Amino acid sequence: MSFPKNFLWGGATAANQCEGAWNEDGKGDSICDHNRAGSRTANTHRTFDLEIDTDQYYYPSHTGIDSYHRYKEDIALFAEMGFKVYRMSIAWSRIFPNGDEETPNEAGLQFYDEVFDELAKYGIEPLVTISHFELPFHLGKTYDGFLDKRTISFYENYATTLFERYKDKVKYWLTFNEINFGTMDHGKRINGLFNREYTETEQYQALHNVFLASAKAVVAGHKINPDFKIGCMLAYITMYPKTCRPEDVLKTQQINEKFNFFCGDVQVKGQYPYFMKRYFEKNNIQVEITEEDKALLKAGTVDYYTFSYYMTTCITDDLEKRNDKTGGNLFGGVSNEYLETSDWGWQIDPIGLRYTLNQIYSRYEVPLMVVENGLGAFDEVEANGSINDDYRIDYFKQHIIEMEKAIDDGVDLIGYTPWGCIDLISAGTGEMSKRYGFIYVDRDDEGNGTLDRSRKKSFYWYKQVIESNGENLA
Predict the structure, then answer these.
(1) What secondary structure does DSSP assign to 335-368, as a single string?
(2) What's a single GO BP term from this record (predicted)?
(3) Spacing of C-alpha 60 from chain mean position
(4) Which of 170, 358, 384, 457 has the greatest count of CB atoms below 10 A from its CB?
(5) Structural domains counted in the chain
(6) How many whole angstroms separate alpha carbon 461 and alpha carbon 441?
């Protein structure tokens, strides 16, 4: 079995990592705009500043790769590759600068009108993430983000504004990016909690309110345009037991349920799973969940399930005592001696993608999309300007082969949008040197460079993949 004829090949970005123009045309600051750069070499993630100090520090999202001004050039390059779909996000604070206004910023709405029109010119379907770690800073500072139920209404107003404005331009929507990060580190990226130390009850109450906001958006969107397809998006970290010791197997199951299954169950099935109810009871976590909330979650289930897949990890019951921990997308584990790792220590596991697709589909049986997948690596520009990223081509080739096998297994996989189809700033550190794209952007970790775009070897390879609908991987 090969890829379906209408398979959605494309690529993915996020506004806060590529747009720049952080305070232009009425845009307010988002929580991302308060992150100053970190460094892989110094092993530091970004520092979150309550007060922005551009005189002393570099904030990568303020300029990104300047796609706000260069989107036409970028979309033309996507079209040259043959994209069928482009996953992008809308910057919430570009539409509602503080997040709690009643009236939107027309300049922000007009910008995305122009982006969608440009995509339509080339026949590229937009896949829009409504909130991709871009909560308006004011909502976090003033309301403690989604801990305050008023933020649910602010999000609903924002989402409804988008649905009504773009009802004839956008079909595919995602409510929140990697929503399950709301279960970790108090969920600053998702829940908007950063003013103080928060209890676990507050963390999960805020996440519950995010679930309600998502459900309200689904209900509203389907009323505005019944043809809308509105999905969820999770960071899926596939986990294997480190050994066949029953303790390792049980620990893997427990972590997998809480991180990978909990949020999917709420958004696809419309209800809290039994294991989270028990977790709340055991840990005296008092989340207010009304009967009205339960009905809303049932009414606001998503149409399809999307996820990011970069790596797999191994779990053991003595994780804290180990000295062989591995890196990852905000989630660690221990090393797998059967896998190679990227320059950033992420374990590369193409076969794990097939396993993951089957694991998710067997649980939910709704259409799936892989909306983030890719290899962050150092790229070297040759003297003649070429970039021979065969390592990236091999990475994608092996993952596409496994996707095709999953389709043959019976999985309903409808699309694939590799992450960072154009080089952009890292979500974890703000670096540019960690490059994912098929398109090279002349920018360094300190924000220097021309921002000129150029095609990597993988650009031409992916073009032939799309042209052949996944058949020509040579």
Answers:
(1) --TTSEE-TTSPEE-HHHHHHHHHHHHHHH-S-E
(2) carbohydrate catabolic process
(3) 18
(4) 170
(5) 1
(6) 18
Residue type for position 380: E
DSSP code per residue over 96-127: SSSS--SS--HHHHHHHHHHHHHHHHTTPEEE
Asked whether residue 1 is domain-assigned, the answer is no
- Interatomic CA distance for residues 149 and 129, integer angstroms: 22
Question: What's the domain range around 232?
Answer: 8-467
Residue 42 inside a domain? The answer is yes
> What whole-number distance in Å separates Cα of residue 431 and Cα of residue 46?
9
- Render pLDDT for 313-326 as a digit per residue (tens, 0 to 9): 999 988 666 666 66
- Annotated catalytic residue, options 19, 134, 372, 404: 372
Q: Which of 343, 320, 340, 342 is nearest to 332 (CA)?
A: 320
Catalytic residue at 372? yes
CA distances from 462 to 309, 391, 473 (A): 18, 13, 8
Supply the pLDDT for residue 387.
98
Is 200 a known active-site residue?
no
**Domain annotation covers residue 3:** no
Q: For the residues of 239-297, what is the DSSP string, one character each?
A: EEESSS-HHHHHHHHHHHIIIIIHHHIIIIISS--HHHHHHHHHTT------HHHHHHH
At 259-287, the pLDDT tens digits run: 999 999 999 999 999 999 999 999 999 99
β-bridge mates for residue 308, sequence order: 235, 372
Residue pair 311/373 in contact by the 8 Å Cβ criterion? no
Q: Any idea what the CATH number is for the domain that residue 99 is in?
A: 3.20.20.80
Tell me which of 134, 178, 202, 431 is the catalytic residue.
178
On whether residue 472 sits in a domain, the answer given is no
Residue keyed to tokens 């979150």? 48
